[in-house]
Amino acid sequence: MLLEAGPVVKLVVLILIYSSVVSWAIIFYKGRVVYRAMRESERFLDFFWAKKRFDLISQGLRDFPHAPLSVLFREAYQELIKGQKRREGEDVAPAFDLGGSDNVARALRRATTSEIQRLEKYLPFLATTGSIAPFIGLFGTVWGIMDSFHGIGETGSASLAVVAPGISEALLATAIGLAAAIPAVVGYNHYLAKITNLSNQMDNFSQELLNIVERMGRR
């Protein structure tokens, strides 16, 4: 049917096939990235509460290269170290509020934003495909039906044998449009929900980390 379709319908179908292939590639890629981030974040949380000491936790960060929570801790710890060096240079009485919790909070916000952007990378393509693929397919269908009726007008025959092939070729575009859109929408909603859970986990961890820093500073 595709080989016998008109050039516009062929172009529409090729665009939809390309969008579908890219969408499936993104779905598999994001599955690997998101689920790996979830697993390593859970492992890092257990490691964090088991070690308790920041210096020991920092030494074990290499074991969690894909965990968003480990990135948050690394940024916060680096900010603490910078604050400590500033205090030592200014000969201030030692305290573990190294640089102040405000600096740590800003570092955590930056790291959270960066990690969310990394996790959401390529998701807009899934959302776009899910939104416009049915309309692109519908455009191909409408164009194919118009072409079929134009052919009917030229031949002067409206028999089923004349009408059916053109209509079936036109409907092919809508079918492929739906086949491209449905997995894209499902994949987008699924991974968006997972990333939202990771974002909430990062917010909770950031708050816990800030509380620990403030308690250490008061001591």
Automatic annotation (TrEMBL):
Every MotA/TolQ/ExbB proton channel domain range: 99-203
Upper classification of the organism: Bacteria, Pseudomonadati, Thermodesulfobacteriota, Desulfuromonadia, Desulfuromonadales
Topology in the lipid bilayer: Multi-pass membrane protein
Record's subcellular location: Cell membrane; Membrane
Family indicated by similarity: Belongs to the exbB/tolQ family.
Protein name (Swiss-Prot/TrEMBL): Protein TolQ
The entry's keywords: Cell cycle, Cell division, Cell inner membrane, Cell membrane, Coiled coil, Membrane, Protein transport, Transmembrane, Transmembrane helix, Transport
Top-level taxon: Bacteria
Coiled-coil regions listed in the entry: 188-215
Cross-referenced PANTHER family: PROTEIN TOLQ (PTHR30625), TOL-PAL SYSTEM PROTEIN TOLQ (PTHR30625:SF3)
Record field: transmembrane: 12-29, 122-146, 166-188
